[in-house]
Automatic annotation (TrEMBL):
Residues 27-39 have a biased composition (Basic residues). This is Small ribosomal subunit protein uS5. Residues 99-162 form the S5 DRBM domain. Transmembrane segments: none annotated. It comes from Puccinia sorghi.
């Protein structure tokens, strides 16, 4: 009859003309269009450091990454890099404008098993702030997104300082590598040669991008070997950039001299407390003689070598 109400499209389940499920939609607000269960991924968890270095960084005792490089401390938490170098943080996204991080290459790799071939994806990610810091990470995973995320974390943990210098007159900011350096990985050799200002980066696209992230503006490059293997080519360039600080004279770095003075003030205490009695006597005469020997060594040895001497005495 005309006066009888027509059945709703949602049936007897409370549709009220809005389709199956009524106002709730499919799944009662849990399906498509509704809130998902366990939204922990969207919430940013607070970092709880588990290493001594991480606690010092979070408490603000260490305010620059150069303090970590000065004492060669191992970085085992990538959140340390996020705090000390905020320009590197991109939350896993590629930010080409600020040279934050870039996926250099994604390649499938296979392994033969009893069940057949197992395919995974290998990601190469370079990260840098274009101001003297560079990192390179490599990660394999079953999914591309997981491999990229893991490679970004490894790249942050492998951040190295990049020393820059001049080609001729020391005018303006450093713009090139300080000297000739050569890195090697497998059959690939990459050599970096200082270039005059305005030359640019004369290199292949892969190594050019890596040098841009490092903050080098002018450089000549020379490569040989199987450079078509992208992974080895990137690693060789990274190794060459890493050598820029290993060619540094000790007398030209005042930071090492000041830190060495602090170490010398504590060496007497370290020796008297940790060294064996057979190595160092505890009387004041021997301590004074030891201090004189260390003062004579301080003009030619970096602090890390003196600390290695202390550590070697601990192990004897």
């Amino acid at each position: 009859m005309a006066d009888k109400p027509q059945p709703s499209a949602g049936g007897d389940r409370g549709g009220f003309g809005r389709g199956r499920g009524g106002d709730r939609g499919r799944g009662g607000g849990r399906g498509r269009g509704g809130p998902r269960r366990g939204g922990k991924r969207d919430e940013e968890k607070e970092w709880v450091p588990v290493t001594k270095l991480g606690r010092l960084v979070k408490d603000g005792k260490i305010k620059s990454i150069e303090e970590i490089y000065l004492f060669s401390l191992p970085v085992k938490e990538y959140q340390i890099i996020d705090l000390l170098l905020p320009n590197l943080k991109a939350d896993g996204k590629v930010a080409l404008a600020n040279f934050l991080d870039e996926v250099m290459k994604i390649m499938p790799v296979q392994k033969q098993t009893r069940a057949g071939q197992r395919t995974r994806f290998k990601a190469f990610v370079a990260i840098g702030d274009s101001d003297g810091h560079l990192g390179l990470g490599v990660k394999c995973a079953k999914e591309v997104a997981t491999a990229i995320r893991g490679a970004i974390i490894i790249a942050k943990l492998s951040i190295i300082p990049v020393r820059r210098g001049y080609w001729g007159a020391k005018l303006g900011e450093p713009h090139t590598v300080p000297c000739k350096v050569q890195g090697k990985t497998a059959s690939v050799y990459v050599k970096l040669v200082p270039a005059p200002r305005g030359t640019g980066i004369v290199a292949a696209p892969a190594s050019k991008r890596l040098l841009q992230l490092a903050g080098v503006q002018d450089v000549y490059t020379q490569s040989r070997g199987n450079t078509s293997t992208m992974g080895n080519f990137l690693k060789a360039t990274y190794a060459a950039v890493n050598l820029t600080f290993l060619r540094l004279k000790f007398s030209s770095n005042p930071c090492l001299l000041s830190s060495l003075t602090q170490h010398l003030l504590l060496l007497d205490h370290c020796y008297l407390r940790y060294a064996h009695p057979g190595h160092v006597a505890t009387d004041s005469t021997s301590t004074t003689t030891l201090r004189g020997i260390l003062d004579s060594l301080a003009v030619s040895l970096p602090s890390c070598l003196l600390l290695d001497c202390v550590i070697s005495l601990h192990r004897d």
